[in-house]
Amino acid sequence: MTAELRRFGPPPSLDEIEELAHRIFAALPQIFTARCQGLAIRVLDFADDATLTEMGIESAFELAGLYRGAPLPTRGVADVTQHLDMVFLYRRALLDWWAEDAMDFEELVRHVLIHEIGHHFGFSDADMERIEGEAH
Fold first, then answer.
1. pLDDT band at residue 45 using 50, 70 and 90 as cut-offs
2. DSSP 3-state assignment of 89?
3. Three-state SS for 41?
4. For residue range 53-68, what is the model confidence (pLDDT) as tens digits?
5. Which of 61, 125, 55 is nearest to 98 (CA)?
6. In this structure, how many other beta carbons lie within 10 angstroms of the beta carbon of residue 91?
7. Strand runs (DSSP E) across the chain, as ranges?
């Protein structure tokens, strides 16, 4: 008996991952997303050199996601946001992580998205694990 071969297509594009991330975000618990007003999600192949240097990261494959903006716990009531709050997802690092792990790609994107948004709120790792559990 011959085992049926899995079919592999091309890796997801930047646009496909961004659409997936928005779909995942929309399915997250409302208690989590309600506080994300104005948060943008952007997908790039890699973090830029300035970001990697700032974070002390040597290989762009080591950074799968990043939150940029003023974390809510440090903002005052009178603060005016100068920059749009954004979560960056880095496609090539995500694909590399996926290739090394047994995790489903959608689960991986969900994990990174929740983790990065969690930084926005100052959540603990335990809080983020609980949210990941509720996100299904």
1. very high
2. strand
3. strand
4. 999 999 999 999 999 8
5. 61
6. 19
7. 40-44, 65-68, 86-90
CA–CA separation, 21 and 105 (whole Å)? 11
> What's phi and psi for 100, nearest 5 deg?
-90, -10
Measure CA of the first residue to CA of the last residue in the chain; give whole Å.
Answer: 36
On the CB side of 76, CA atoms within 13 Å amount to: 2
Percent of the chain with pLDDT over 90: 54
Centre a 10 Å sphere on the Cβ of residue 16 and count the other Cβ atoms it contains: 13
Provide the pLDDT for residue 41.
95
| 59 phi, psi to nearest 5 deg | -115, 130
| Positive/negative CA dihedral, 116, 119, 123, 124 | positive
